[in-house]
Amino acid sequence: MSQPEAFGRYRVIRRLGSGSFATVWLAQDDLLNYPVAIKVLAENWAHQMDIQHRFLEEARILRQTDSTWLVAVHDVDVLPDGRPYMVMTYADQGSVADLIRRGPLPLDEALRLLTEIGQGITVLHNHGTIHRDIKPSNVLLQSSPVGQRVLVADLGFAKAIDEASGFTAAAGTPGYMSPEQSIPGGDLDVRSDVYSLGAVAYELITGKPPSRPPVRVPPGRIRPGLPRELDDLILSALSVDRESRPGDAKTFTDRVRSIRMAPDLPRAVPWWQRYRMPWRRAAALVAASLLGATVLTVSGGAPGLSLTTVRDAAQGIRMGVPSVWAREFHTDLRARPAAVDAGAGPGLLVATDADDWHSTDVPSYGVYATVMPGARDLSKVAEHDPCPGDPASRRVRTGDWEGTVWDWPECNGGGAFTSAAVHPPGEPATVYLEIRQPDYRPDLVDEIIDHTVLG
């Protein structure tokens, strides 16, 4: 779906993300001078009345509950082509999934988030609703005068508890949904959400989701020093036998709160947890530092992101990368084949996971850059993989750079991919860039290019 100019009185700014059934846009309510998020039913579901009903039911539930712990729906309307859309709270700090990707959380912070998520699910259960798709990416974070605020979102799979017997189709996200949810016609109750809360708790505390059920490895084995009561609670929530789980979200949340309030709770992330990484990654960081990689934080124009500047002395290049992506540094990664054919040599990669950089199934997010002598023609990089379809091509011309950017806003369901070939005006040197990001942000691409410097 191309970017519309407006939905009713709401002026569209950019796309925030998309899923199987809908696309979410950031928009501005110019009348009230306030940002909002607008969720629009996808075009391919426009004539599916059951999907439209589910979409509108989500809006009704959120409007009726009207809770501090849930995303609020301010308005609902219909586009000229018949697709409904809802106007919702804009969460300016991203999601809990984004937070987890940045690294280990202090235990107190993880338990605070978990308590607030549990309170949101408790509100739904009290309303007579099962969420059925609780996961870190469906829990949003918003700035507030009293600090960060948790908002449970995306009730597209939510169902009334009194209709929970004999669902005709499985629903949920593998890794977070209870075993009984994977069985069409299964008999569900609120303890299915308790399983999902246990999975979210596991990931908040260890940085990784639990294994497939039955889960046998307690969080404390991955993160030593956790209270035994917390291990027991999470493993009980993840029990295959739902009779062994806490009875509902409130019971689970009350126990989390009690553990958090204990006077002997570890208050900091242990040093070994903060700095632990495989030796392969540590070696890459050392190599980068020997080549002159330095890090300093600069103010980024992209909302909610700061850029970390990394320097590769061997290539004579500095580039700005969102700090949340700067987990691994590699100085000799090859570009994709189309760029290699054009003369691109090994370059500098700063990313969340170097092993998955060239993967089309589970991509990492980050920036790759290599310097090529001469004014190279890299137009053919837009004719090859990594993404299906033709990219959107645009020219870049600033005081420091000129060249071409090729954007694939949707790349194999794994976010957005960008290739760029830029050079300083009048200078015979080309910088080839690859940028992977979870959502299509052309403004962020431009920010990265603007913070790339030769010399």
From TrEMBL:
All residue ranges annotated as the Protein kinase domain in the record: 10-265
GO function terms (MF aspect): ATP binding; protein serine/threonine kinase activity
Database matches in InterPro entries: Kinase-like_dom_sf, Prot_kinase_dom, Protein_kinase_ATP_BS
SMART domains: S_TKc
Superkingdom as given in the UniProt entry: Bacteria
Taxonomic classification: Bacteria, Bacillati, Actinomycetota, Actinomycetes, Streptosporangiales
Organism encoding this protein: Nocardiopsis flavescens
Enzyme Commission code(s) on record: 2.7.11.1
Binding site for ATP: K39
SUPFAM superfamilies recorded: Protein kinase-like (PK-like)
Protein name (record): non-specific serine/threonine protein kinase
Alphabetized UniProt keyword annotations: ATP-binding, Kinase, Nucleotide-binding, Serine/threonine-protein kinase, Transferase
PROSITE patterns reported in the protein's UniProt record: PROTEIN_KINASE_ATP, PROTEIN_KINASE_DOM
Pfam families the record matches: Pkinase (PF00069)
